[in-house]
Amino acid sequence: MGFIKFICARIFEATICFILITVLPLPPYMEFTAYSVPPYMPLEGTLELNDRLNNAEHLFADLIKGPEAFAVYNGEIYTGIHGGEVVKIVNNSLVHVAKFGKPCDGFWEESICGRPLGLRFDKHGNLYVSDAYYGVFKVNVGTGLVTKLVSPDIPINGKKPLITNSIDVAHDGTMYWSHSSSDATLQDGVYTLFGDGSGRLLKYSPTTNTSEVLLDKMLFPNGVLLSDNEDFVLVSETYASRIRRYYLKGEKKGSTDIFVDKLPGLPDNLSHDGKGGYFVPLVMAADKDHPAINHIISGYPILRKFLVRLLALVEMPFQFIERFYPNYYTKRATHWIGHFESVQFVGPKRTTILRLDKDGKVLDSMHCLDGTLSSISEVIEFEDALYFGSPFNSYIGRIKLEKPPRISIRVKTNKESTAEMKY
Ligand SMILES: *[C@@H]1O[C@H](CO)[C@@H](O)[C@H](O)[C@H]1NC(C)=O
Ligand SMILES: *[C@@H]1O[C@H](CO)[C@@H](O)[C@H](O)[C@H]1NC(C)=O
Ligand SMILES: *[C@@H]1O[C@H](CO)[C@@H](O)[C@H](O)[C@H]1NC(C)=O
């Protein structure tokens, strides 16, 4: 009898707790409506598992953390790392290029350090960098001059562009860029897994220094890539396991469609494969037996609201203490709770890179099944090898290609590659 009473009392308390958390106006402030994501493509045919990415080399092991994106210029690879720096690799060492954040003690102070994500050169050798906390910048890598293009503090159509993520620059200098959320910063990126989509694809005009929204309410928009003749721009919508296309020219100008969906995981950045198609790394794998967490709960908005508020409630005491007694331990805790890095181990161990053709059909897939690569956000082909970036890894992955590719550097705005292509 006493036992049943005990159980009933606990159930009663849990219910009250659930109701209070979902009904009270608690942070984080986001919208919650039901949505669904269509079932993943099966892992067969061009998606059949293979081990082509096994035995990856680890470059700069433990010297680098989170080389998320790459850009190549004058035969040198540039990347952005934890601590907020943009660096280039010269003679096997890392050389400082730029930093937009403030001095900080370590990666757990990411919001102070800054976190460069997207990098892209234009045809004049200006490096565009998207820093998740500080906005989008243009850096002249020759003179070191830095110009701010987008500020995360200035709302666009009433919403702040938080988690500025990826960029691509057209020939005329127009920049297409994504920010992944309007509700949370990268530090609390996990929160965005629970809310409705609040990210956007935008178009920045260098003549007016303003941005126009092309697509909104997106589920974590990420990699942005212009097609070769700039007739459309692709944007991966990470949490929807799909890539959207926005037309810039022709009859469909201004309209959008789905380039590909049902991807077996969460797509991150996009790059050209050098053959008219695209590379798509899946930063987290998912399949019928291992669905992504946000796909499992997408149809239950009240549960999503409860879970994310619970997470925020767990973080709150640490933030409170941090405000009055800033110290190492609460900094580590507030960094850890809600950061993507804390959940990178969920999901199947497979790492997958897809190759799509010019129309979005899956041509080929490469997999790593031995764990030598994980959480890959970007792949580039450079000097007969593939280089793999990641938001978390403490190395740059590399796999040598058997045959050197015809064009060794596939960055269309790069001086050297255009020169090479003339031969
Ligand atoms: C890189 O190393 C080579 C050979 O050791 C040297 O000739 C070259 O000057 C170095 N380049 C830089 C930028 O340090
Ligand atoms: C996406 O990939 C391109 C290269 O195709 C790179 O320039 C850009 O920095 C990457 N962006 C992100 C956010 O990874
Ligand atoms: C462009 O606009 C941003 C606001 O989004 C501002 O911070 C920046 O200073 C402006 N840049 C120039 C060159 O005017």
TrEMBL record:
Residues 165-251 form the Strictosidine synthase conserved region domain. One of its GO terms (cellular component) is endomembrane system. The keyword Oxidoreductase does not apply. GO terms for molecular function: hydrolase activity. Gene3D superfamilies: TolB, C-terminal domain. The chain crosses the membrane at residues 7-26. Pfam families: SSL_N, Str_synth. It comes from the Eukaryota. Keywords: Glycoprotein, Membrane, Phosphoprotein, Transmembrane, Transmembrane helix. PANTHER family: ADIPOCYTE PLASMA MEMBRANE-ASSOCIATED PROTEIN HEMOMUCIN-RELATED, STRICTOSIDINE SYNTHASE-RELATED. Belongs to the strictosidine synthase family. This is Hemomucin. The lineage of its organism: Eukaryota, Metazoa, Ecdysozoa, Arthropoda, Hexapoda.
